[in-house]
Every structure is written in structure tokens, then in C-alpha cells.
Amino acid sequence: TNPTQWRLVLPLLEELASGDRQQTPRSVFLVGDNKQSIYRFRRADPRLLPMAQQWLQKHLNGQTFTMDTSWRSAPAIIDLVNRLFQTAPLNQYISNFQPHQTHHKQLWGAVTLLPLVAKTARERQSATELRNPLTCPREQDEENRYLQEGLLVAKKIQTLVEQEVSIGQGKQARPLRYSDILILSRRRTHIQDYQAALRSLGIPYQAAGKGTLLETLEIQDMLALLKVILAPHTDLALAQVLKSPLFACSDQDLLLLAYASAGANWTEKLQLLAQQAQLSAPLLRAARLLPNWQALAQTLPVHDLLDTIYFQGEIIRRYLAAFPGHLHPRIRGNLQRFLELALEIDAGRYPSLMGFVNQLVEMGNTDQEAPDETEESSGQDRVRIMTIHGSKGLEAPVVFLVDCAAVELPGESYQPLVDWPAESKKPERFLLTGKDSISHSLRQRQEPDEQREAANLLYVAITRARQMLFISGTEPNRSSQDSVSWYQLLQQHIGHDGSIADSSPPLDQTKPDQTPAGNSLIALTNQAIPSQWQKPFQAQLTADIPLSPSTITNEAADTDSQVQTSDLFARQRGVAIHRALELLGQRPELTSEQLNLQLSGELDTESHTPWLQEAVQEAIALFNHPDYRFLFDHTCYLQAHNEIPISYKLDGRLVYGRIDRLVVTSDNVYVVDFKTQRSQANADISELAAPHLKQLDCYIQGIRQIWKNKTTVGLILFTQHRLHYRIEG
User: Fold this and answer.
1) Cα separations (Å) of 170 from 73, 139, 180, 532?
2) Among residues 151, 168, 167, which one has the least CA distance to residue 203?
3) Cα–Cα distance, 94 to 450 (Å, whole number)
4) What is the spatial distance between Cα 96 and Cα 255, in angstroms, rounded to a whole number?
5) C-alpha angle 160-161-165 in degrees, rounded to nearest 5
6) In whole angstroms, what is the distance from residue 247 CA to residue 315 CA?
7) How far apart are CA 412 and CA 434, in angstroms?
8) In angstroms, how far is CA 577 from the centroid of its own chain?
9) How are strands ordered across the β-sheet holding 396-402?
10) Which of 261, 588, 596, 633 is the most exposed place for a label (fewest CB within 10 A)?
11) What band does 482 get if pLDDT is binned at 50, 70 and 90?
């Protein structure tokens, strides 16, 4: 609550106190916690709570009830809170701190201090040597440090989920999921580095993007595109656009433009080389679309121009193809939000593209006006990442508190200063501070309030955790003798091995070395581990042990994944063909270029890679082959499914597998198993199929139990030479 809000509420309370409460019983209920006042930048003042408490006691016979027992956190978390805030220096800032208790006395928990990411040594150039900005990029050690911290956190998250660490207690115990994890940062500055680390390990995440729409990769690309349309000579912006999913140009494409002798800038080079037919398909596409959009910008309103670009450039589809599936809702929403801004900003009155871009830049420089990212739907299994301020009121079984080694140094920038005592009706002082001595003196007077706010922020961050809390940080570039980082404070209260806990976590005992922190835990109580936690967790889920068809046949695993096991190319090629056939089954109109673009995004490779183009052509040739029309033409079957899982009982055992393609006609059910390994054109088809017959027979037996009145036909289809081996069920 800030003073303005209190002055709005006070007349209501005074009216309540002046009435006859005997005839008209009325009551007021105020809830507050000084330790969680973290919005000082909005002029929130924790001193208002005790003043409101005194007012209610004096005028309404108010009673005070304190609650120092947590309904959320495990004893390990509460123990850390007590250690921190009962001792110096934090006990100076949170006055009258009462030791906390918890209702979950048997809930196991752990607090872990991850290793500090060290500062990398910078290779400095000699004092007499200047860096050539055209050939030598600026070194950015700091960003790399935060990326390394993010990778440390991401690997820990991956380990926790893979080891199926149990959360909850008793009958509510279950394996940890990504959605049970919350990453908190004091500032937004390095959140993109943590997101990049999560993406690199394939960990799904959801970011709370308050005021960060213009900072996202997809919107940065759109802004660069608008700059190219406005100023075609901006080579750096053009390079960003060409490299983006919009055109998906390769490094070789950019080098071709960079070293081309013709043309004064990249835009001119692009057009001249296009006339000579010396460009790749992505560059030719850019040479065709960009001039058209530059011409339309002279006549169309901003929204109509963007709408045309989205349609002709297939913006949304291309970006979805370039990002993993769990990011699709955010990508789609942000791109749509950017299009909406053309109508929302000043009611869409800007007649020129330049005015629109300038307004976006101005909004991006103002935190209060910067547009937000699209809200993602909840209920999905994703790690949440946000600022501590954004986490107020939230909780999670596992919390990672990152960037804890940063030291907040006092700033000298110009900022408004409002001095409004809690008991006053109006501010005593309101000014814009500068670097003069008076401003410096006033800021020093407010330093205790800032330190109290920092202590409150740490309290809020720690108490978001229900069972596990991890603390990480990077070695700061600057240090201060007067300031202590959170990492240093926490280090003083955590064990020598970097962890504290109140009991060992319940893990699958069949897997070795499964402590969440990777360190030995310090037992703070003598609690016994419940008997149900001493058994493998999977045994509680199902009594059946699934068998794959390859296990039943005692053959090697599927040739697609085992042939040339050491050759990643062979496996990627198999995945590409399978996926291309699946996409063609869904959208037969897809061209080879569209398939290349889609698969390059999914497989994290370049769309012009020869092996990928060859795999796509192989899939298209099989899809269009007249002998297999009955498998792919929707007019020839009743229903068809790709990558369909199947499970059934075989001799009392649960069999689980995945069928590449299942086609149901009026008389038959076709079970198709694609094989993508290389072979000679004149190879004996029966010899090629022999290793896979028992595996296919397992699929046929399962399908026969579902469609008992149809003939089940198994097909082992070799994609390279478009040959098949048929088994009648």
C-alpha cells in the first residue's frame, strides 16, 4: 500500500468508525506483511501497516493476530529463513522478526548452494593495438558467464526430472515435473541467457514477459525487417533478416553477399546477383519479396503493410517451424501482438512506417510503456521463469534463485524522489535528484529503506519454495566493500558441502548417486524416511514392465536407429524421412522447399543441407509413387494415423511400440513400417526384411485385437528404392 491508496481508504474507515455499530454491525479485515513489501518503486511503504494497525485499535477496537507458521514450506526452507533474518545484517532491516514454524513438519526439503560461475579471463589487446570493428567482434564475457550459469541450472533441472525426484508426502507423493520448477531472478537483464540455456537442453519453459515483447527474438527480427524496408542500405539489419526464419539463409549466403564486388550495399548486391541467377533459393526469395514490400510501404497503412508481409512471407508458419513445439504458443501470440500494435498505438493514426517504428523504439526505452509478451496458457508442463516481483503470491516445489552474486551498487542517475511520511497527508518533498550534494544527501537518508526492501525481496524469493531451493550466481565484475551479495549472505548459513536438508529425498533406490544437489546432505533432524519412499517409485505406478517388439524378438533394435550407430547423419536422415512422410500425410500440398524449411527448424540444421534435401526428395518420391497411392491418398482409405503408439498384453506381459503408419480401409488394416537404411538396388528384399519380421508380427498381433473383422496386412517399406515386403495377418 502506498500513501495515496491509504488516503483513499482512510475516509471509508472513518465513516465506518463514526456510525452506530450496535445497530448496524460492520467489520473491517486488513491483511499485511511488512516482510513482503517489495514495491517501493511504486511508492509502497511498509510503515503504513503498523500505522493502520494502531488506527484500527484506537477507533474500531481492532485486534491483531500474527501468523508465523507456514502452510507452504518444508522445515529446511523455514530453517534457512530463521537463520538469515534472526542474525546480522538482515535483522537490522526486518524489525521484530519472529521465528517461523511450519505445519509440514514431516515434509523433506533441501537448500543447495550451487558453485559460483567464475569470471573468464579476458584476452586483452595491447594498448597500442586497436580493434577493427569490421573483422573483430566486441568481446562479451559477461553475457557468456550468465549463459554458463543458465547451463548449470538447466543441467540440474534435467537431472532432477530424469531421476524422478519425489515431491509431496504420503499419498500425494509423485515424481517431479518441469511445471513444479520456478526460476527467479532479481532483474530481467539476463533472463534471455537463462532461456537460451533451457532451450539448448530442450527443457520447455514459460517466461513471464512483462514489458519485454520488443526484446523477443521474433519481434527483434520484425523490427529489423521494418528498418530494411525504410532504409535498404542498412546492411546489419538486412543480415539479421536474411538469417532469421523468414528467409533462413545460411552463413555461406551471407558471405556471398559480403564478398560480392558489385553493388554499394547488400541490398544492391542482392538484386544484381539475383539477375545473374547466382543465388540460393532463400536469397532469391528475399530478392523477390523485399523490393515488393519496400514499394508497398509507400502506399499502404502500417497495419495493412504488416498484414501483407505476414501473408506473403508466411511469417507465423516459418517461425513456428524454427522453434520447438513448447514455444509455439508464445511465438504465435507475440507475432500476432506485434500486428495488433499497428492499430493500438495512438489508435493506428501513424500514416508512415517511420512514425510507427520510432514510437516502438520510444516505448522500448520506457519500462512503464513497453508492451508485454503474450500470456501463455497454464496447465502445461513447463519450467516457469520470472522476476521475484512477478512471483509474489506464487509458489513451487522447487525454486532456483539465480544471479545471487550481483551486488546492487548505489546509482547516481536522475530519478524522482518522493518523501511522504506515513502520518502525513501530503509529501514533504518531491524532486528529481541529480548528482549534486543535496541529492546525494537525500539519497543517503533513503538508503535504509532501500536495504530493507532488498531484505524483503530475498525473503519473498526464499519463501516461494515448498521443498527445494537452489542458489546460483556468477562472479561479479564489480564489488563493493560496503555491500554484501545474497550469495555471500546465504553462504554463511549453509553447510560446508553447499547444502542443508531435513531428511534425504525420496528417490528411486535402484538408481545410484541420486541426491538432488550432487552433494552429501546434512541431517538437521532424526526423522526416519517413510517406508513407501524406500521403494522404487515406478513400482507404485504399474506392475507391468513394458516390452518393446525388438526386445521380444531378441533382435537388434530398429535398423533405423541402429544402422551405423556412430553415424549421426544416418539417424538424422531416418528421422527426416519419417517426419517428411508424416507432414505430407497431413498436408499433401507441401513443396520440397516448404518441407526443407520445416524440417531444418525441427532438426536444427540448414534447409539447404544436401542430406536433408535428399531425404525430402526421397520422401516425396515415395509419397507420389503410384504403387503406394492406397497408403497416402485420403480417397483410398477410411482413416490413417502416423507414429501411432500401441500397447497390449502378450502372454501376460505388456507390449509397447510405435507404428510408423496405420491405414484402415473397408476390408484391410495396413501396418506400415518404414525402413530408411541404404541398400543396393538389386538386393534381395526378403533378406532385407528378415531382421524385422518378428517385430512387425508383434504389431500385427496387437492391431488384430482391435480390428477383428478386417484383414491385417503388414508392410515393410524400404524408402530408398520404394520396395516393400508384405505379410498377410
Assistant:
1) 16, 52, 18, 8
2) 151
3) 12
4) 65
5) 60
6) 10
7) 7
8) 29
9) 205-207, 383-387, 181-185, 396-402, 465-471, 110-113, 499-501
10) 261
11) low
Q: DSSP code of 2?
A: -
Reduced to 3 states (helix: H, G, I; strand: E, B; else coil), residue 648 is: strand
Identity (one letter) of the amino acid at 379? Answer: G
| Nearest-angstrom CA–CA distance, 518 and 156 | 9
How would DSSP label each residue in 16-49? HHHS-TTTS---------GGG---GGGT--TTHH
Distance separating alpha carbons of residues 630 and 661, to the nearest angstrom = 12
* Number of other CB atoms surrounding residue 413 within 10 Å: 7
Residues 70/465, Cβ–Cβ less than 8 Å? no
Instruction: Please state the pTM of the whole predicted model.
Output: 0.54
Question: Which helix or strand (DSSP H or E) is residue 652 part of?
Answer: none
DSSP calls for 78-105: HHHHHHHHTSTTGGGTSTTPPPPEES-T
**Pairing of the two strands 181-185 and 396-402:** parallel
The number of helix segments (H) and strand segments (E) in the chain equals 25, 18
Q: Find the helix or strand (DSSP H, E) in which 642 lies.
A: strand 639-650
Q: What is the average per-residue pLDDT within 202-211?
A: 72
What confidence score (pLDDT) does residue 157 get? 94
Residue 173's Cα: distance from chain center in Å? Answer: 26
d(CA 587, CA 599): 14
* pLDDT exceeds 80 at position 639: yes
Residue 555 per-residue DSSP state: S
DSSP symbol at 36: G
End-to-end CA gap in the chain? 74
Residue 99 amino acid letter? P
At residue 653, φ and ψ (nearest 5 deg) are -110, 145
Query: Out of 137-151, 318-332, 535-549, 689-703, which region has the weakest mean confidence (pLDDT)?
Result: 535-549
Helix axes 302-312, 281-296, angle to 10 degrees: 160
Distances (CA, A) of 71 to 75, 181, 288, 465: 11, 19, 62, 12
Q: What cell was used for 658?
A: 510405435
> How far is it, in rounded angstroms, from Cα 288 to Cα 285?
5
3-state secondary structure of 603: helix
Q: Which of 714, 670, 722, 711 is nearest to 692 (CA)?
A: 714
H helix intervals, 91-243 = 141-162, 191-200, 217-230, 235-243
Give me the residue label for grid cell 534447409: 607
Look up cell 513444479; give the residue: 180
3-state helix/strand/coil string of 492-518: CCCCCCCEEECCCCCCCCCCCCCCCCC
CB atoms within 10 A of CB 43: 15
The count of C-alpha atoms lying within 13 angstroms of the C-alpha of 392, restricted to the half-sphere facing its C-beta, is: 11
Helices (H), 511-557: 538-541, 549-553
State the DSSP string of 344-390: HGGGG---SHHHHHHHHHHHHT-TTTSPPPPPPPSSSS-EEEEETGG
Whole-number mean pLDDT of the chain?
Answer: 78
> Looking up cell 517504428, which residue turns up?
357
332-372 pLDDT, tens digit per residue, is 888 888 888 887 765 555 557 888 888 787 776 655 444 55
Longest dimension (CA), the chain: 102
Q: Does the CA dihedral 69-70-76-80 come out positive or negative? A: negative
User: What is the C-alpha to C-alpha distance for residues 347 and 35, in angstroms, rounded to an integer?
Assistant: 42
Phi and psi (nearest 5°) for 192? Answer: -65, -30
The residues facing 669 across adjacent strands are 664, 712
Q: Up-side HSE of residue 434: CA atoms within 13 Å toward CB?
A: 2
The letter for the amino acid at 6 is W
Q: Is the CB of residue 698 less than 8 Å from the CB of residue 552?
A: yes
